[in-house]
Amino acid sequence: MRLQDKVTVITGSSRGIGRETALAFAKEGSHIVVNYTHSQEKAEKVAEEIRKIGRDAIVVKADVTNRAEVKALFSKAFDHFGKIDILINNAGISRPKSFLELTDEDWDEVMDANLKSMFITTQEIFPYMQKQNHGRIVNLASAAGQYHGPFILNYAVSKAGVISLTKTTARFGAPYNILINAVAPGMINSEMIEEEMKTDMGKTIVGMSLLKRPGEISDVVASILFLASDEQNYITGHVISISGGGYLG
Ligand code: NDP
Description:
The protein is α/β, with parallel strands linked by helices. It has one domain: NAD(P)-binding Rossmann-like Domain (Rossmann fold), CATH 3.40.50.720. It is 45% helix and 15% strand. The chain has helices at 16-27, 40-53, 67-81, 104-132, 153-173, 200-208, 217-228, and strands at 7-10, 31-36, 57-61, 86-89, 135-140, 178-185, 239-242. Strands 3-2-1-4-5-6-7 form a seven-stranded parallel beta sheet, with helices on both faces. Strand 2, helix 2 (40-53) and strand 3 (57-61) form a beta-alpha-beta unit. It starts with 6 loop residues before the first strand and ends in a 7-residue tail after the last strand.
């Protein structure tokens, strides 16, 4: 097993990519802290499934844009498990709107949920990982932050920020053996983009990929798992594109 006895905190793991990552990590031997903001029932179900696999799981409600709630999330995780090996910064939102329709509130909401949240979680997890002298962080960026396709402006800018945050914090993590990387998925079959896939924008983005089809959540989970596991110990500050070659389109 690739994550035997590790402890992983996954933000936004009540559904979608976060949920599937939680289950895949549990199958590889990791205990899991399931986090959510609204979907309590779904989060509890994920934890139940993890326990059926034979790993321990706790569910913690925390809004990752709120520093006090993030502090409480990590302190509950540490109190229960005694360590935190891996953080997956997965929680994120998309509010599809055209450029001229975007309001200041739309801008702030997406920046807070997608980017400020990762500043807060990364800063707050550091003392735990520094003391252990090891840690892995994998951030969910997006193809939207890598190449300048017909994306939603605030979403694209927030994810470009995630890439910058990943590379810059990797420098701060390196002296403590904290490896920080990101994955940048293109259009992935999931609840989040169900509506976008029906629009011209969604079809254009899929059309920009060399493979001319959306990806699957399992494609994203495989890369997250690789970056978080001890299979690799020499990659940090890197971004894996999971977009069917979309960056070449
Ligand atoms: P979903 O919308 O399916 O799930 C989002 C998860 O994040 C939910 O568990 C939700 O919890 C949680 N969440 C949202 N805001 C907060 C918050 N403030 N605090 C804590 N949890 C929060 O998203 P996906 O699984 O599709 O996406 C996951 C990540 O991958 C996101 O960062 C997204 O930007 C990125 N991504 C997704 C792509 C795709 O095609 N799906 C493509 C590229 C990147 P709750 O249910 O309780 O609200």
